[in-house]
Amino acid sequence: MNAWLIRGARVLGADPTDITIEDGLITELAPAGRATKVAGQVIDADGLIALPGLVDLHTHLREPGREDAETVASGTAAAALGGYTVVHAMANTDPVADTAGVVEQVWRLGREAGYADVQPVGAVTAGLKGTQLAELGAMAESAAQVRMFSDDGQCVSDATLMRRALEYVKAFDGVIAQHAQEPRLTQGAQLNEGEMSARLGLTGWPAVAEEAIVARDCLLADHVGAALHICHVSTAGSVEIIRWAKSKGWRVTAEVTPHHLLLTDQLAAGYDPVYKVNPPLRTAADVAALREGLADGTIDCVATDHAPHPAESKETEWSIAAFGMTGLETALRAVHEAMVTTGLIDWAELADRMSRRPAAIGRLARTHGRPLAAGEPASLVLYDQAPVTAVDPAAHASRSRNTPFAGIKLPGQVIATFLRGTPTVLQGRLCR
Amino acid sequence: MNRHLISAADLSLADAISILDTAEELARLAERPIPKLPTLRGRTVVNLFYEDSTRTRISFEAAAKRLSADVINFSAKGSSVAKGESLKDTALTLQAMGADAVVIRHNASGAPHRLAEWVRGSVVNAGDGTHEHPTQALLDAFTMRRRLGRLSGLRVTIVGDILHSRVARSNVWLLHTLGAQVTLVAPPTLLPVAIGTWPCAVSYDFSSVLPASDVVMMLRVQHERMAQAYFPSVREYSRRYGLDGDRMALLPPHAIVMHPGPMNRGVEITADVADSARSTIVEQVANGVAVRMAVLYLLLGGGPGGPGMAGGPAGQAAMPEPAGVAL
Amino acid sequence: MLGADEIRRALSRIGHEILERTDGGTDVVLLGIPTRGVPLASRLAARLAQTEGIEVPAGSLDITLYRDDLRLRPARALGHTEVPDCGVDGKVVILVDDVLYSGRTVRAALDALGDLGRPRAVQLAVLVDRGHRELPIRADYVGKNLPTSKREAVKVLLAETDGLDSVLLQVRPEAGQ
Ligand SMILES: [Zn+2]
User: Fold this and answer.
1) What is the pLDDT of residue A424?
2) What CATH number was assigned to the domain covering residues B8-132+286-316?
3) Which of A362, B250, B254, C28 has a 20 to 30 A CA-CA distance from C161?
């Protein structure tokens, strides 16, 4: 029997509790020292916070196609080290995950890796080309049971195509996750359009290019009564539009990345492309609005947009460097810093934004993002909030090193991650 | 002086004045029977040009050679960065060759910043994308000072495609540092949206600012901007923002007309203006050599324990918490 | 070591010697080496004009770009070179400096002068010769020979640059202190 006793963990930051895990399930929660079942291995979790296993709605695992940047195995290892128990693998692989065959391949690779569950996201349009719907129904019916579809990396910019996609996936309770970027307004765009882009001579990426699509798609979602998810919201204006759409009762959800909660376009001053990301880092005012939106629930969840790239894609001039940042291994610490340290949310709310709500949006609420309670799957994280250390990319399990937090001091450390009762991380290190 | 000259915005007033004063002395030496100086003997200057710009390259080459530096021209044009050798690998090659300075012209904004991280020598920005062209701004300031006797309080009007102009950016920062008052004139489409954060005034009405201008600097406007809907037609652009004889007549008698070249005669400037006595366009070219000599001398003419134009490239995120981390 | 009167007398004596040894100042051009050689050259010219009624052109010759020790220090600001209208070709150029020490400044000045033209002869006038030559160079006119140790520093102050005329001998602090 696979059994664990976690002693004295503070569940969602509350009083110290003993957690008993047996055969993949939580079988008992008892005040510290009062566990009735004493079996299996014991973990001293005194002072640690217990959170439900984190759920990422937005991960680029790069396999198949760019195994030099990441594989399903290395990406899920990074996920486990970051406290994640499931990641949604974005469709912009090579080949594109636009058929039942490819999504099943990714799903199987994830099952073999075992560090975290992998839930494939299907492409909305064939080849991400934005012209023709991919076989959404076939992907939904495949073993991978795809429910979230996204052309992420590309915006589904054609309004009619977007409308059809939203409508079509209603048949199987699907959701379209939109990468909101009006393409004509962002031709050659490099950096948030504002003071920094003007000074640095980098082509501006206006906030309106995101907000115009967010607004359009909210209206479309209402019109056809479908579910829309907005990827990586990055501007104050988008937050406002989503708040308005939600006030109407429309089926709109949204995510924000850890880097957009913590970093601004000022970092581009030295032209280091490690800070080049899509959507771009914005201003301090946007960061404040995003934090507020996440705190009040306008933005439902945090998603990493973990986008690994090999060194040569970043050791270049800014304008030819790849967009994207790694995030899985720093997300919890970054959100801790941006949201909890600042007092905007507590640990229970963090669990809501990083586990329960993303699981619901990903249509995984039966297996992930569950409460920490007896009878529930034992997918959880033990987190030490005390240490403050500089992020060291060399220590990351991801194959790529393009973290914007390199050298920056962040609080916290993931001590252990359990996936359905099996530890994937213990003592801060990957198991097996 | 800093170890590099990457941005005019990095120059302090003292740095800028020191470059102009040094250039002044060097310009006078150029009139001697033997204009060559032994100062940089044994130093190697690499001209690393990713963009065709014969005039700028020749100007830097002449400057380096007059100071007796060894000059290596490394034309990377055509070796489009995407397929050819990466900038980093090129930098490591130059490093191995012992380049004391690399003069870089590149179509990507910020390329000199990147280069400065990979080479040990000094990096001189000879124009990067739509970012800066600091030696152009220095030679413009030098030309203004020679013609008008001062820079402080000078009213300088810069006209044209500000959005895409590295010359305009460098001039705005440098002239601001030197105490001049800059007014930018352009169609609103060709101004950055954040123009309000720059230390200058903005006008859409060219004629109205001319009577109060000591200097008018015309920027080259590229035809392809029309296709991108920045303005409707060359004719309309010339009518609203071009400098012709009638407009020039609105200038005060002492005012000068500048152009960084190459000119589009008949577009932003008419031939009679370009060839008039007010025009400094030919002087600008000559002054370019003296200013670039000054820059090379101040960067390379000393030894370690060096001068200190204030540290590394601007904006290098200082640990532990760089600007832009909202902690 | 020297006060204003002694400096005046020294320059006066140099002036006389120049006349004696240049056929009454014929074809002489005085070139001061910045910083303090420049006012010394103009004082000499003024003295010759006042006391002897002889007009000797004076200018300045910056040697910074010819120094052999450029790499030992950060880039230095350039001094001013001002050659009198008559030029230097065929002239007797007298280089004027405040202190003669290693001789390296004079070596650089000779190089700089060579790029300006071809004088008939070059001579050297210094206010103070403190010895310790490192090159085969000697002065033709010396205001005062001042035996010094290498640990000492000779500082010439002039009214034009420093507000008063004086020559000071200072002991340099030991390295490392
Ligand atoms: Zn995206």
Assistant:
1) 96
2) 3.40.50.1370
3) C28
